[in-house]
Specification:
This protein has 376 residues and is an alpha/beta fold. Helices cover 37% and strands 16% of the residues. It has 14 helices and 13 strands. The chain has helices at residues 14-18, 30-40, 57-60, 64-67, 101-105, 114-117, 120-128, 133-157, 166-180, 195-208, 220-230, 279-291, 308-316, 338-347, and strands at 2-7, 19-22, 25-28, 46-52, 72-74, 80-82, 87-92, 243-245, 252-254, 325-331, 350-353, 356-358, 364-370. The strands form six sheets. It has a three-stranded parallel β-sheet with strand order 1-4-7, with helices on one face.
Length: 376
Amino acid sequence: PVKTFVVNPKSITIDELFGFYRADEWKDGILSSVLKTACDDNKPDGKWVIMDGPVDTTWIESMNSLLDDNKVLTLSNGDRIGLSDQVSLLFEVENLAVASPATVSRCGMVYIDVKEVGWRPYVESWIKSYENEEHRTWLKELVEKWLPKLLQVKRTSCKNVIPTSEVNTIISLCNLFDAIKPKQKENPEDEEVEYAILFERFFIYALIWSIGCTVVENSHREIDLIMRDIDSIFPAVGKVYDYYVSTDKGEFLPWQEKLQENWKVDKDVPFHEISVPTVDILRTREILMKLIPRRRNMLLVGETGVGKTALIQGIVLKTVDETQYNYFTINFSAKTSAAKTEEIMESKFEKRTKNKLNPPFGRKAICFLDDINMPR
């Protein structure tokens, strides 16, 4: 067995990584603390310290003595941490553009080609997590029917809002499908719609809002065409993005039907809190509310002023059960640092044990990070 310790060295400052003096008092850094914990463990099990982040000369050069034959890291306070035989350092990086020959020569290199590995290992592992043999068979058939063609079109004909890897969109597909798929009734006769039909419809819906949702609006047409080409189950009007799955009927119905007719502004609501219901708001909220109970992280992307903050703060967070969830907002700016973010987050939790923080009153916590593109 192997115990892993994962550190992202680029998410924190060099002082927070290795340690620093504050008012003549030494504060251990994250990496130095992790190395001490790993090296002090006398069990024969392997310990891997994984540096998961871009290589940067500001921190990698400080580790050359740790990587050579000495295997010793010397800190600013004079402490020396020697690696035991059970401890290994792994660097998981995208490229070695700024790595020096001294660093490269001290490490063994393993190049993993994304095209060679692909998304299939993750999907196969996910399918195996289903206990029902029939469900596993359905999933295998749906994956082979939809994913190769859809991913090929997205790869060659679509433009993404932000760069996304295929594996990441596949992970989103699996998470979303697990969150939205209806439960199968014990007695098949009680099913209003055949469960196999619902199973497929919700898988397709998850495809649209995982693989299909990361492309720009101009590329929606390509996703719409290939999905209709694979299977003609969608209504002829509009695009595939305009429909949701009706659990009662087992059909794709337009989101427009869910909008309240003759909607009027509540005179008692302040002007800045008025939210006009639209299809975009409705379908985004629907997906967010499905993923929150599953404790999945979500990223809402859009141009400035389209209402991302209003949607989350005014609609989603105000509708969650406050007896079960404790939510708070952290507004990022150009001056936001890792230490400040940590301080804000810790202030929202209660200290139960020495190293564990929990939300108050036994609730679950929802943290909304606004403007995450702002910090340097």
